[in-house]
Amino acid sequence: MLVSILLFLAGLVLLVGGAELLIRGASRLALRVGIPSLVVGLTVVAYGTSTPEVVVSAKAALAGQGGLALGNVVGSNIFNVLLILGASALIRPLVVTRAIIWREVPVAIGVSLLAWVMSIDGYVSRADGTVLLVLLVIYTVYQVWTGLKEGNGADTAKDKTESVGVNVIFILSGLAVLAWGAQWLLSGAVDLARGLGMSELVIGLTLVAAGTSLPEVATSVLATWRGQREIAIGNVVGSNIYNLLAVLGAAAVLAPRGVEVAPAALNFDIPIMVAVAAACLPIFLTGHSIARWEGALFLFYYGAYTVYLVLAATQHDALPAFSSVLWFGVIPLTVVTLGLSVAHHVRAKGSYGH
């Protein structure tokens, strides 16, 4: 067990280090050719920070560990919104741009629903994975084209401090370290799951999802601290879209029979992922920002979700009572609160218009 834990932690360290090298090289290279910061956040930084998920899920799929691959994607998306945006908003309230509200969040909700539909038959097949990868290419081209079209030059200052060659070396080194770290993390995670008697799905939803999302944590929190809030939010929303289109798509294409979807994931975790994506829209609409109390609400729900997973995995006696409080008390209260906030926002906007 100790060896498995050390292997898992060493893999995490390599993943974070590799992602840092990749992000540094890719983002500076993008800025050097004049791509706006929001587009850098939605594509280069988001894709770079999600590379650990790609590598880990691809390796898991090739090894026939579909539950771990799927759990990594679904768990990472839930983690990104509830924990990363929640923590970032507590540091500093996040201002959300109209592009995020009306363009990126609907795409995130749409691809989440698409993944849910694809999972209904119990598999995300190779054909499904191919569709997801094609959509990824279309989305990326659209983002870059739109960003270059809308860019006004204010945030496209070109980085002259490093040559293209140096940035390419950073990118290639980061990819190599990521592959190495993913192998260690995957070996440790599988051994831990077996040792603790937990399913690969639960390990993927918790330990692996949180571990592979560490680059997103570091990037978004640091960007918020520095006042680069467009990159912070763009990183999270872009990563979630990328996780479903690229990570799940690649895993489904590489796996011999596609990615198997466990009933527990289909009936609980994937609907939670869709609900979390959908919850962003009303929260972002109220004042075009994520307030500190909304960030705290996100963190609370991530804690509750994690507790539920642990109680369910261990079949703890407290599970029924905890579920009742969550489903019939906390969640309805949150829905009512968000509904009132949206209604107040719409009424205030209508009054302002008149």
Order of helices and strands: HHHHEHEHHHHHEHEHH
Tell me what portion of residues adopts beta-strand conformation: under 5%
- How many strand elements? 4
List the strand order in the largest sheet: 1-4
CATH topology: A middle domain of Talin 1
Q: Which segments are poorly predicted (pLDDT under 50) over 5 or more consecutive residues?
A: 152-157
CATH architecture: Up-down Bundle
Radius of gyration: 20 Å
Tally of individual domains: 1
The average pLDDT value, as a whole number, equals: 78
Helix content: over 70%
Assigned CATH class: Mainly Alpha
User: Structural class of the secondary structure composition?
Assistant: mainly alpha
Cα distance, first to last residue?
66 Å
The profile of the biggest β sheet is:
2 strands, antiparallel
Shape: globular
- The number of distinct helices, counting runs of at least 4 residues, comes to 13
User: In CATH, what is the homologous superfamily?
Assistant: NCX, central ion-binding region
